[in-house]
Amino acid sequence: MAKKSMVNREVKRAKLVARDAAKRAALKTVIKNQELPMEERFKATIKLAELPRNGSAVRLHNRCQLTGRPHAYYRKLKLSRIMLRDLASFGQIPGMVKSSW
């Protein structure tokens, strides 16, 4: 089980990313537009740098929905390998059976 503070930090980051996504996208389009004057693009770069760093989507990290474990994460199921195996063993995931031979 991951620390509650780490899970809460990721939730906070996800909220910041969702809040700032439109603003970041608008600033990035201004920065990439070569037809605008250099001063205007530079001002947009400064405004982008002033936004909180945790609002960037790169800062997000995938975590297991049940335990908060950050490693060995399956994106399709949003679970870690440990919880995936436990749930598969108990028959909780449709169509998945723990193999044995």
TrEMBL record:
Gene3D superfamilies xref list: 1.10.287.1480
SUPFAM superfamilies in the cross-refs: Glucocorticoid receptor-like (DNA-binding domain) (SSF57716)
GO cellular component, one term: cytoplasm
Assigned keywords, A-Z: Ribonucleoprotein, Ribosomal protein, RNA-binding, rRNA-binding
The organism's place on the tree of life at top rank: Bacteria
Similarity comment: Belongs to the universal ribosomal protein uS14 family.
Function: Binds 16S rRNA, required for the assembly of 30S particles and may also be responsible for determining the conformation of the 16S rRNA at the A site.
Quaternary structure annotation from Swiss-Prot or TrEMBL: Part of the 30S ribosomal subunit. Contacts proteins S3 and S10.
UniProt protein name: Small ribosomal subunit protein uS14
Organism: Pseudorhodobacter antarcticus
Lineage summary: Bacteria, Pseudomonadati, Pseudomonadota, Alphaproteobacteria, Rhodobacterales
